[in-house]
Design a protein that fits this description.
This protein has a four-stranded mixed β-sheet. The protein is of the alpha+beta class and about 300 residues long. It has three domains: about 60 residues, TolA/TonB C-terminal domain (2-Layer Sandwich), CATH 3.30.2420.10; about 100 residues, TonB (TolA/TonB C-terminal domain), CATH 3.30.2420; about 110 residues, TolA/TonB C-terminal domain (2-Layer Sandwich). Helices cover about 15% and strands about 40% of the residues. The radius of gyration is 21 Å and the shape is globular.
């Protein structure tokens, strides 16, 4: 079973100019990508005592961690970390899975709401069973139940990205943990799948025929990446180890955050959802058109290397 807690951390790097003003900020690591925009927005307002060289103020690069403590219910019903409790049949599991100290989530993420279901206001839910190995990575995941195939695949792609401090057995040795998670997808954004205000703005623009949405060619300059996480190879395909590719369409909002990734094509459906999950965490320098922030529609191919 899972209980949600309201704690999180974002590690940022930034450029501070000779006047102590923050000029550029990007996320290096976080316990949840959903917290990164809030951290970046806050730090952009900070003022520093500038670094000095031979007594003179100079620009510098700074690293800073931003910690969050949130009441339950922030971002809908979900916090950013999870804790685990033993099920009733825990002692019936294989010995290798009988943990005494539960795993601890070090990195979690929310799932991507399948674009067409979100756009048409379809809600649903899915249940995923997964195994966390002694290395803290998800070794295997399976869709136990899903109201829609797309929601099951989106949840599976999400859980494949999570990282943990591994479980320990009664002797203090690292061991496996067999876990489950069940969540609802609600179009209004409450629950485990939050929908940002920026995403809603884009959906409204699409309803008006794309009003206010730019193309990459209309930008003043090419998009400049700030965070581009690589996709996680789908656990459902690891036994095959095949190479793959997915073409993802998404929108970059006025803040530079990727929104509403949609699978255009994929060599395997699982690659499509894994790619969309990664793209949803990408961040760019603010896209400008005529010197003003704009929303831009983008398509990118995402590659998956073969696994031995």
């Amino acid at each position: 079973m899972i209980a949600l807690e309201g704690k999180g951390e974002v590690r940022l790097q930034m450029v501070v100019d000779a006047q102590g003003r923050v000029q550029e900020v990007w996320a290096v690591e976080s316990t949840n990508p959903w917290l990164e925009r809030a951290a970046i927005t806050a730090v952009e307002q900070w003022k520093f005592e500038p670094a000095r060289l031979a007594g003179q103020p100079v620009p510098s690069r700074v690293e800073q961690s931003v910690n969050f403590t949130m009441p339950r219910g922030t971002f809908g019903e979900a916090g950013d970390l999870v804790t685990f409790r033993k099920g009733r049949d825990h002692t019936k599991l294989p010995v290798a899975f009988q943990w005494e100290t539960p795993p601890k989530a070090a990195y979690v993420n929310f799932p991507v709401y399948p674009f067409q279901l979100l756009k048409t206001g379809v809600r649903g839910k899915a249940s995923i069973a997964y195994i966390v190995g002694p290395d803290g990575l998800v070794q295997k995941s399976d869709i136990r139940e899903a109201s829609h195939p797309e929601i099951g695949l989106a949840m599976q792609a999400m859980i494949d990205t999570w990282r943990f401090e591994p479980a320990k057995n009664k002797d203090g040795l690292l061991c496996y943990a067999m876990l489950t998670i069940e969540q609802e997808f609600v179009p209004r954004g409450r629950g485990f799948v939050p929908i940002s205000d920026e995403a809603r703005q884009i959906l409204r623009a699409l309803e008006r025929g794309g009003e206010g949405i730019s193309t990459a060619r209309q930008l003043d300059a090419a998009l400049e990446p700030r965070v581009m996480r690589a996709p996680v190879y789908p656990s459902a395909l690891r036994g095959q180890g095949q190479a793959g590719e997915a073409l993802i369409e998404f929108f970059v909002d006025q803040n530079g955050d990727a929104q509403l990734p949609r699978i255009v094509s994929a060599t395997a459906t699982e690659f499509g959802y894994a790619a969309a999950q990664a793209v949803a965490t990408w961040r760019f320098k603010k896209p400008l058109r005529g010197g003003k922030p704009t929303i831009v529609r983008v398509q990118v191919p995402v590659q998956f290397a073969a696994r031995g």
